[in-house]
Fold these 4 entries.
Entry 1:
Amino acid sequence: MKIAIIRLSALGDIIQSAMILQFIKANKQDVELHWFVDERFKDILENHPLIDRLYPLPLKDKKIYQTLKILFEARKNNYDFALDLQGLIKSALTSRILSRNNFGFDKNSLKESFAANFYHQKFAMSYNENVFVRYLSLSAFMLNTEFEPKNIYFKHPVFEADKKLSETLREELNLSEKNILLHLGSSQKNKIYPREKLIKLCSLILQDEKVKIFLCWGNDFERKMAEDIEKTHKNIFMLRKINLKELSSLTKIMDLIIGNDSGPTHLAFAMNKPSITIFGATPSKRNAFETSINKTIDAGKKIINAKHINKKDFCITQIDEKDIFALVQDLLYA
């Protein structure tokens, strides 16, 4: 059996979607899984032990002809199923090209409802439902099997770190007894916890001199933020810009990962590493799955419809750094 998985972007969504790999392989040991992804994010999936073939697509540069050429060539693999986890028109079309027997959510379960017109098999589940439950439920529907949300608690690490790279980073960073990776950015400004509050949080954490905090950044705005925070304490260290392979290896050697609703904190959850994810105008109950070592904190705002998020809502600024610190203590000294 061959299955085409379509999850083109973005980083955090790809990381969260990857949990279905172990679920599918557990239910269909003889299955061959091919993943179609925007080439910008291929590094996070490259050499994954449960992906038999990876198809990076040149979508960012809008190379439509090249993308279609790749898809029509891949269609010759004669996929039994095509599974669209993204639910956008472009991903639905991709799944339709790859197989006539394609699966996706129905029109009421999608942000871009028109995408449902391209699916042969449609599954109904509220868009407000937890994303992991959505992805795994759709996969179970495709396989005609059952899925229990409680099984998420028993997942194996979704990604493996390069051991040699992890050791290289360990030596490069001169780690302390306790080490925290603090991710500063996110895809949207209203999802970023304020610099001033992060400085206060770091000050609280670093009352313990055996702790080091490493700042991770991805663009010029975040870099400036990291520079400002680094100046405030001798045990805060701004990292050089790292790639996706290094991110996995760095996550592996940290004791705690803290960040906004973004790919790096979702990666910590995927790798079964302790984490705290800070939510503002995006729904924590939908976008994360809490465990004994993976915690979330939000502004307490009730978000009724996840399809319509107010990008001008900066309620994340209302979260008290002392409340985050309380979670840090619970996880770092458990």
Entry 2:
Amino acid sequence: MKKTIIFTLMCVMIALPAMAQRGYGYGPGPRIQTVSRHGNEYIGWHRYYFGLRVGMNASHVSSESALLDGSSIKTGLNIGVAAGTQLSYRAPVFLETGLYYTQKGGKSGSGHEKFTYDLNYLELPLLIKYKHFVGNHTSIQPYAGGYLALGTDGDIKNYGTRTAFSSFDNGYFNRFDGGLKIGCGVGYNMLYLDASYDIGLSNIGQDNFDDTHNGCFTINLGVNF
């Protein structure tokens, strides 16, 4: 399942640039021109955009349950597509969403007492982004919003007993997750780099008495069309 999702997203990432070049509606939209502070230079931005993203997660699971608490950092992949549209002609404020395959989870213990939790999701963000131009080609893009995620696959590994079992199908973790996302990006022409943090608000543990939440720091590199 994991390999199928990654392969599908990689195919989309390869296909979109070709579609943009051939005029299938993925190219830049109408530009809005705004006079810069110097009065004689013009800065343009797109009314809408599409983007490709690939990056790395550093995640952890915090839980009131000693069994599920994975407060040590676990790294994983973050890959997907983004789409944004300008909300106002008078200001560079955008609504951005997308679809990502993101690998979260956590680690606990060490040696024979070590556990790792792989929690892999399809994630849908919904963000408000502001583009502040610092030149004709460069913009700083702070954003905030939320995300919804559906667990697709993942394993809990017990290194003490050398066993592994599904994270979502054995009474440990719920498949649904949701929370807040804050971050900031930097754009230079078509290139894009950002860093963000997910604050999980949903109880992802199946125990109703102990709260369990995701936390995830992400760095992405990508391009916008």
Entry 3:
Amino acid sequence: METVIAYFDETGDDGFVNSSSQDFVLTSIYTKTENWQKNFNAMKNCRALLKEKYGFHSTVEMHTKNFLTDKNPYRNYGWTKEQKQEILIAFTKCIAEQMDFSIVNVIIDKTKITDNTYNILEKALTYNIQRIENDSERQWNYIIITDKGRLAPMRKTARAIRAYNPIQSHFAQESVNQPITGLIEDILEKDSEESYFIQVCDFVSYFVHLYFKCVMNKNPLPSRVQNVIDEQFISRVMATLKYYGRLNLKASKSNEYGLVIYPK
């Protein structure tokens, strides 16, 4: 059976108390192992071109939120607004046109949560893994690699849904148990600084967050982000990912970009 590698990263925090975000976005990208080297080379070449043109060294992590809000080390480069846009466009084109993987985005809208026992990370991870599992159709299995910081609760959730994963039946009101069977091993951890693929997750996740917050819900862009991009730019990034088939649209048929949004 073929094996797929899935990478995860998030935008926002998964708590209620002292929360800094109204939503939590968990993004996964997953690819066949046979495509791994091709994908790695595509991003490596993209970073080499960005180093040549803008001085953006390939060893510097692309952390999209900090990049857009002009935090260090990006502030030190002294890029213009237009140069920053060009870098974002280059990243988008590389991800969409040159790399071969699928993306699942799960959004937990914290403004819709009425139960203070609602486990945001557990729900987001469960919904995301369910979509990868569905996409596999039991034709391939997969391993998951995530950024540092939330490994213990993510492992606990993944272990739990191997045994109990209730799915709402289409033919009855009660749910049926469909344990996750395709996931190999515990979830593994890797520092995002050392992984182009987790950085891609971060890039997509942050743009999904901006799209949900500012395009779908009509909230204003953060002031520093406004200095670089607008809502139209965000929509173009999303449209490009869709056009080139990177988004798993089957993840949610109720959204044009396949965004899985809970609570309903």
Entry 4:
Amino acid sequence: MGVGLMVGQVIALGFVVLVVQGESAAGPAGAPDPEPVRRTVGEVGGILASENSRSGVTVYQHDDGDFDLNRGVPVYVAEHAMRYDLPVGGTLVWLEACFEIEYKAAVQDYVFDFVVYADEARTIWDESNRVYDKGSRPGDLLSGPNTVRALLPFSGPDNPGAYGCVRHSTEVAVAPGPVWVSVRMPGWGLAREMRISYARLKADTQFFSAKDPEWRVRDFFGPNSVDRWHPNHQSLNPPRRQAYAIRMGVVHEGGPSLPGGLLPGMYSECHPTTTPLVFDGDYKVSLCYEAGGGEAGEAKGGIWASGQSGLLWFFDRGNAEVLIKVLDGCSYNDRRWVFVAPVTDVAFNLHVTDSRGLLWTHRNRLGVTAQTRADTSAFPCE
């Protein structure tokens, strides 16, 4: 069945897509890149970025894969768009979106479009609603509509929360800065005309960053009737927090890694090699850090330490950065407890290792005030 969704035109021919079935709404969505050897390179402009060291593809997504919303289409066609702010340019090599289809649908076949836009950042007077539409929205067309057809898993009593993530290979040059990726979906009216199943785009209200991502939606009420892009989430009061399950893979210029060392919001990939603190029971503490501008090193101890607690410093012996305790809770719950109280916004990886080689870790992103942590089941007692 060749069916396109660009304002009802029939344009679909042959495609090659990858469908990754999610286990459940509360489970993993399937890795955006199926190849191994991935490392997290942190949040870039509120976007999770993870790099596949084998393929050189950096994956960008706002959602965390644990979806709690669905976005259906009550009109003819609807288009949902997410904005991504790229630190450097490169080539967009694939697009991905995740959908749910109910078990009571007639068929599992689903057809939709991917579209890529440049950013349009200007204030527009919306005469129909008598408001100024400020800020960012999809602008000039960069690619698409690229029509994709896939067979989605049913979600129902026997497979609750199941969804499919559909990937489309592409090749689109993207410049540094904002780029919009959208999914154009058929609504009830067009779905009936095409005799295909009605699916819903997955969405997330608890995404990686505390920063709300930019999103837009517009409706097609018929082949020749298209609404404006709305709403900018910042125009809502209170703001509506959501991130669509729309992702992309980018090969950046100059190689797979993001340039210029660690960017704000990124984790460090360092591995500590020294042991500045050793607590009762042979619990070894080590920590490596990475600051802005590429400065990196190993934490040092010795400011103050006992058999159960100690302080670590990075740059100045008189300026403690992390307090850590490893306490004996064996008589309470048969566990060793670990408490960490960092007072830094430097990226770090903290390791605590016991005599059996069991590892407990805590980490922080660059430019983010580190979180305290209390784990009363960190290690089983011997």
